[in-house]
Amino acid sequence: MLITVLLSPFWQGLQLLIDTLFLCVKDINMLCEGHKTVCMVVNPRRCSALVRAVFPSFKLGTIDLQFVTTFRYLGHIVTESLCNNKDIHREIKNLFIRTNSLVRKFSKCSFMVKCTLFQSYCLSLYDIALWQKYTVTCINKLRSCYNKRIKLFSGYHWSANNRCLFKYI
Questions:
Q1: CB atoms closer than 10 angstroms to residue 118
Q2: Can you give the pTM of this predicted structure?
């Protein structure tokens, strides 16, 4: 499976890139599926710099490509406003899923083993460095989720102080 991202500041330039891609794919006997190929228009931050609200559809061969407002790229959720709130919510959901799995499987382990498991399995926030545009509410929800999950997994009461817990992690 080949994942390709094409970027262009102009509509005609992007259509030219799509046509070139279609010809190259055809030359090497690959298949480029039009129903899986999508387009996204990233609007400028200033509304006065907006050139156009609606664009003509791009064509991949004879197929019109669909415009979307969000899509998943390499596990990340990309939105047309380039806001990372949906990706942060995805990480919160994954943190709940991973921690519940650890609680179910490793509830009888020692505290230090649980800390090591939590660090290696739940704290793989490799995409956090990519987050640039988000709301404080989303980050607070992530922090709250992290605090709740680490307390649940390590067996602390929900109202316990965080300081005694975080010196081991």
A1: 20
A2: 0.75
- Report pLDDT digits (tens) over 99-119: 888 888 888 888 888 888 888
Question: How many CA atoms does the CB half-sphere of 54 hold within 13 Å?
Answer: 1
Are 99 and 152 in contact, with CB atoms under 8 Å apart? yes
Token reading at 81:
């406003």
Write down the domain spans for the chain.
11-68, 85-166
Between CA 90 and CA 159 the distance in angstroms is 26
In three-state secondary structure terms, 38 is strand
Contact 156, 117 (CB under 8 A): no
Q: Which tokens in the block code for residue 126?
A: 């490799």
Distances (CA, A) of 96 to 39, 41, 146, 152: 32, 32, 9, 11
